[in-house]
Please model this.
Amino acid sequence: MKACLLNAPARIETNPLQFAEVAAPQPARGEVLIRVRACGVCRTDLHVIEGELPPRKSPVIPGHQVVGIIEKQGEGSGRFALGARVGVAWLHHTDGVCEYCRRGEENLCDDPVFTGYSVDGGYAEYIVAPQDFVYAIPESFPDEQAAPLLCAGIIGFRSLRLSGIKPGERLGFYGFGAAAHVAIQVARHWKVTVYASTRDARHQKLALELGAAWAGGTFDAPPEKLDAAIVFAPAGEIVPAALGALRKGGVLVLGGIHMSPIPSFSYDLLYQERMIRSVANNTRQDGEDFLGIAAEIPIRTHAQIYPLSEANRALNALKNDAIPGAAVLRVSE
Ligand SMILES: [Zn+2]
Ligand SMILES: [Zn+2]
Model:
């Protein structure tokens, strides 16, 4: 099969993904083989490729927002019919036995396996995944619309949940890429007022088109104090600015898997019961709940399509903030 291989971490400007012919995987017991139709491009892929996350497998095929068709079932893998359209997300599987899995917090599993990082992902014509961690994709979404829902969408949704935001409240977004452009649609559906702070004018424009009450630069103070804010941009210097925009008791959620160091700041910014918390992965329940709501709203993703062979170009564009919405690799029809 054709796939994009990362042999060693390197800056994306050096186009490190190698478009190559490799052996297609075979489904083991409990797994399904999926013929990939589309795969979303996520900032986490950049963190994997550029080595900000320590390498787990080499070479590795990145990609963890995979939409495709079940082509073969491993032994005991009859949960989905052959030909069913399914999705594979970042959480490839968990051990199911650690303290966190037993507490219903499988997103925090002590021994997790991640798609496109610790095992091969969806920048390829085929992928295998455990059937229990695969999602049914609602019929109403075309492939390239569905792909960004599987990480950007689910993580944005979990970030919204952890923010505790309620109808009628004010929510800030810092950074307005793939996750925020989906999360704003859920927030608006919940009658939340959204303020978008982002350095890129195209992203500010998209935020306003999607119903933001205000859009400004990353460090411009929103016109109202915020009940909660979510930082999607991987830049630690945003944290003090976002804290400064919160009302007393407000919640700041950090939505990324990687962030540059957070500068020290005055305790006054945190005092008055403001809270900071991070988001790590998601549970399968988050994914199921989100895909249901996404179909009901319905969410519309703005997808910029690239062929599989041009994954390096898509990732360079993502790094340069040149993607309004989400980048998606079209792998097959
Ligand atoms: Zn576990
Ligand atoms: Zn992701």
